[in-house]
Design brief:
Chain lengths: 389, 82
């Protein structure tokens, strides 16, 4: 496909990787975080790690929507879907995220709750239009990429006076999460303090632009390079980060200029501003409760706010004790350091949220990287192996 | 690539031969022939072909400047797993 294949060229990737190896100081240990789950997936899927020098480490960030969704918010949705005669719609990945006591939206569906997978918020709105006798709730998750589509359906529902539609809003914001990771450095015994720079999100930045990252370069002296989701984009961004570190610079640079501008998509931002306001506090899986890190529906649209319509209350629930998702989401631990990784916790039976979505650090490592942890020993051919011609 | 505008805020896109209807409400300026970036059924931005060429030119520059020693350093695969 045009503008995709060119950015996956293997020979060019090796050239960029060679440049990274040539320019990286062998005496320095580079540690960069790719914030976004889309980059985590690309790095794992295309074997980007195998192309990087051993003294350069990529740390997976929390930019995976289902990974950061806390158990308590899922419990609210499951409870609502089981108790009320409603249809709950949500994105596919959300269905399998573990909630309290081994529950999930998928298991609630098996128990008889009317839960549907939708591809887009617009599909949930359409379902409400088609079945006016039944209430439809859209369980909305995601960062600034999925938020404008949710704003659109709320705006359309209000303008058309659709009465049987509401949204349970779980939308979260990227810049507060980056700040939490940088501020949390002290709490984790300095582990995250070693992050030297960020590969900035691709699609989130299309919406919010490159300007919101300026404060991380200015106040925290951390370089940020916004990158597209293809392997050459990620490699080029890593090269740009290595150059910034080597030259002692901390700037926001944009590798993804074909889609990201300094100001972003103003129409999408205006819609979000119209429909949503900052939530005083939101609990993130792994990062804890962060002030002003998420969105809630403005009072003008309260008739379409499922939390108000059904009087839903949030209750915080601790993660499974054996699960290391929290530390992995903060970039403190790697999937293979979790005791239940790949044994008890697998993509088929996820215990932690990072094993659910293909963007999750654990699922990406399980699918594409876990065999790298096993040393390869060449088999010595014996006479018995030799097949007569 | 946007191949047809279906209504005020819907458009038909071609994804390597597969045609799909997406919302254009967030990029009302999109016209037929534009490359759009789609997220959960919505075009969220337009792709700038000039900037794409510019980025590819940076890669090509790198290719020209790289010598054989550099290439030997890089090992690994870049094939999407199935």
């Amino acid at each position: 496909m045009k503008y995709i294949d060119e950015f996956r060229d293997g020979a060019l990737a090796r050239q960029i990787a060679a440049r990274i190896s040539a320019e990286a100081d062998p005496l320095h240990s580079y540690r960069f975080m790719e914030f976004c789950g889309g980059h985590t997936h690309a790095i794992s899927r295309y074997g980007v790690l195998d192309l990087l020098p051993p003294n350069l480490r990529m740390i997976h960030g929390p930019g995976c929507p289902v990974c950061v969704l806390p158990i308590g918010r899922l419990d609210m949705a499951i409870d609502l879907a089981l108790r009320q005669p409603i249809t709950l719609c949500t994105y596919g990945d959300t269905l399998r995220v573990p909630a309290s006591e081994g529950a999930s939206l998928l298991k609630a569906k098996a128990r008889g709750a009317d839960i549907r997978m939708v591809y887009s918020a617009a599909d949930a709105l359409e379902l409400a239009r088609q079945q006016p006798e039944r209430e439809v709730v859209f369980f909305a998750i995601g960062f600034e990429t999925t938020t404008p589509p949710t704003a659109l359906v709320l705006d359309q529902a209000e303008r058309t006076g659709l009465r049987n539609f509401s949204v349970m809003c779980n939308h979260v914001l990227t810049p507060p999460a980056i700040r939490a990771i940088l501020d949390g450095a002290h709490a984790d015994e300095g582990a995250t303090a070693e992050i030297e720079g960020f590969v900035g999100p691709a699609h989130v930045s299309i919406v919010i632009g490159s300007e919101p990252y300026a404060r991380f370069a200015r106040d925290y002296r951390k370089p940020v390079v916004i990158a597209g989701f293809e392997p050459l984009d990620v490699l080029q961004a890593i090269l740009m980060l290595v150059r910034q570190v080597n030259q002692g610079r901390a700037e926001v640079e944009n590798e993804f200029t074909r889609a990201v501008t300094p100001t972003g998509n103003l129409r999408a931002q205006a819609l979000m501003e119209q429909v949503f306001e900052l939530r005083p506090s939101f609990e993130w899986r792994g990062l804890g409760s962060l002030a002003h890190s998420a969105l809630q529906i403005r009072p003008r649209y309260s008739a379409y706010d499922a939390e108000q319509r059904y009087g839903l209350q949030y209750r915080s629930v601790a993660d499974n004790k054996a699960c290391e998702c929290g530390a992995i989401l903060r970039g403190v631990k790697e999937p293979r350091e979790c005791k239940i990784f790949g044994t008890v916790c697998t993509p088929e039976n996820p215990i932690g949220s990072c094993m659910v979505s293909s963007e999750g650090a654990c699922a990406a490592h399980y699918t594409y990287g876990r065999f790298r942890d096993i040393p390869i020993v060449a088999a010595v051919p014996t006479q018995a192996d030799e097949v007569p011609a | 690539m946007l191949v047809e505008r279906l209504s005020d805020d819907q458009g038909l896109i071609d994804l390597g031969g597969i045609r799909k209807s997406v919302s254009l409400a967030l990029v009302p300026e999109a016209v037929v022939g534009d490359y759009v970036i789609v997220h959960v059924g919505h075009a969220i931005g337009l792709l700038d072909p000039e900037e794409a060429q510019h980025t590819l030119a940076i890669f090509a520059e790198l290719e020209r400047s790289a010598d054989n020693t550099d290439a030997a350093v890089a090992r690994g695969r870049l094939v999407p797993a199935p």
